[in-house]
Amino acid sequence: MFKDTFDKLCWLFLIVVLISTVVLIYTNIGTGSEKRAAGPSKTLERELSYRARVDLINQLYLPVENLRKEGNNQTALLKLDELIRKYPTEAHGHILQGDILQRMGAFDEAISSYVEGVKLNGDYVDTKSPLSRRAEIQKLVDGGLKDVGPRVAANPNNRSLVIARQKLNYLKSRLAGGCE
Amino acid sequence: MIRNREFWLVVLSGLSLGVLGVLLSLWGNPENSGICVSCFIENSAGALGLHDNQRMQYLRPELIGFVLGSVVSALISRDFRSRGGSAPLSRLFLGIFMIFGCAVFIGCPIKLLLRLTAGDITAVAGVVGLVVGVWVGLKGLAHGVEFAPQSQSKASGGILIPGMFILLLVFFIVRPGFLLFSSQGGGAQYAPWQVALFVGIGLGALAQRSRFCITGSIRNFLLMGLRTPALWGLLTFIVAALMVNLITGKFNFGLYGQPGAHLEYIWSFLGMGLVGWISVLIGGCPFRQLIKAGEGDVDAGLVVIGMFIGGALSQSWGIAATASGVSMYGKITILAGFALITVLSMFCRVRST
């Protein structure tokens, strides 16, 4: 690969290009030009928009949270219904709905709401997420499986019980982690 | 056989993959995904901005390690040879569909065994599918289905994939602004990068020396029975992973509530069946393709590129299955994959007249 003039010219050109690259990187380090060219870090940008989203969600659902704290669960559910129709792809409404229904003792409906929420946004079962409801969902699943299992065994033809168990298993699978 | 050096190399590879596959999960990787080439490729494609699933973006050092370990080992043992030219475009497309098959099952053949040895019996459908897929591929080979032989070229294209992975390592260390990293989900779960890279390099070097491959082991077993060393490597992998899972308390026997698993057995079977069939035709599972690409195999390099495209598309187009099941797109993709490999088999078949 170093026989004729063309080979030598290729090597020379390669060396020039490599040296130029090194010089370019070296002279620009610390000047901030590489940062200006690339724009702000995408990770940082995304983190900022995520935080903004969390703040917006908290703000949007604040009236529901207040109603729930006042013990006005029925009105809170009506307000949530309105918000879920307004933002159909937003998971937070379903999660709050699940929480309220669970407190009201509507166990099967609570499971369905949590499943809807987790399917839309897996952050609710993450430990690291500021939106995390992992502890509540874990408690629901642990208690639910103990309760639903014997009920399904006693009534194997009861379709709604079988579906409730499937949904609990889905939540259990999401809580178990994995790569998805 | 036990006096054979190849036998012990294969056993050592199986042992290392089994033990480290479970330990990487303990050290931070997602559950049952200590080593999963398809998941790693989906994560890495996301980190490079090739898909927008914010929960699956992390440039996996293990993946870089596999290729670089293979390069180092191939250079030391003078196995590095630039070679290629065997149905490159077909291999690129098969690489894409191989990852689609893995995405529908949720895991590559290595993760299939890691899931199984962690007690996830939903993986049984995948095991059966993989064996049937390899068997169908072998039947094809027996009837003349094979790509044109490779030719050895002067060292040109063979250095490109190793070069690409060196660049990815530089990106990982320098962390330019365009690289994406998940803050939630599976992409945010990872072992310390130095450990992951070191493990990857070690496993890559071992796999290069031993030629260990999950689908290759099944293929050799179907061809030669118990006489093949590869089978013992596979069995060692299974026993080692099972033992480590039991010792570390990671073993959770059952059908329900398993991490990264769904209950659509037919599609698990078909997904892994597609992977098995493709693997026989292109000469190895996703892991083996990475190792071969590190040895200068340009055809395997194209499969690797295809796998990155497949990893990106499986997330962007909603092909990848989740715990809730397999999407319609995922099911259609699997059927399209079977159609593709059937057509390719018919066209590349050498018929004896």
Topology:
The complex is a heterodimer of chains A (180) and B (353).
Chain A: H1 5-28, H2 33-38, H3 42-60, H4 62-69, H5 73-86, H6 92-103, H7 107-120, H8 134-154, H9 159-176
Helix pairs in contact in A: 4-5, 5-6, 6-7, 7-9, 8-9
Chain B: H1 5-26, H2 37-47, H3 61-76, E1 83-84, H4 88-105, H5 109-117, H6 123-142, E2 151-152, H7 160-174, H8 193-210, H9 214-224, H10 229-247, H11 265-282, H12 286-294, H13 298-316, H14 328-348
Antiparallel strand pairs in B: 1-2
Helix pairs in contact in B: 1-8, 1-10, 2-13, 3-7, 3-8, 3-12, 4-11, 4-13, 4-14, 5-6, 6-9, 6-11, 9-10, 11-14, 12-13
Outline of the structure:
The complex is a heterodimer of chains A (180) and B (353). By secondary structure, chain A is mainly α.
| Name of the top-level CATH class of chain A | Mainly Alpha
First-last Cα distance of chain B: 40 Å
Going by helix content, strand content and strand pairing, the class of chain B is mainly alpha
Shape, per Cα inertia axes of chain B:
globular
- Indicate the proportion of strand residues of chain A: under 5%
The ordered H/E elements of chain B are HHHEHHHEHHHHHHHH
**In percent, how helical is the residue content of chain B?**
55-70%
Beta strands of chain A, count: 0
What's the number of helices of chain A? 9
For the biggest β-sheet of chain B, the strand order reads 1-2
Alpha-carbon distance between the two ends of chain A: 48 Å
Biggest β-sheet description of chain A: none
**Unreliable stretches covering 5 or more consecutive residues of chain A:** none
Q: Indicate the structural class of chain A.
A: mainly alpha
Largest sheet of chain B: 2 strands, antiparallel
Which CATH architecture of chain A? Alpha Horseshoe
Radius of gyration of chain A: 27 Å
What is the tally of helical segments of chain B? 14
State which percent range the strand residues of chain B make up. Answer: under 5%
Helical percentage of chain A? over 70%
Biggest chain-to-chain interface with counts: A-B, 27 and 40 residues
